[in-house]
Amino acid sequence: MNEQHTLRIERLAPHESDIVAVTALLNAVYAVAEDGMWVPGTTRTDTDEITRYAREGSIRIARSHGRVVGCIRVTPVDATTAEFGMLASDPKVRGTGVGRVLIDTVETEFAERGFEAMQLEVIRPRDTSHESKVFLDRLYTRLGYVPEEPAPLDTRHPELVPALAVLCETVVYRKPLGRP
Question: What are the N-acetyltransferase domain coordinates in residue numbering (predicted)?
Answer without folding.
Answer: 7-178
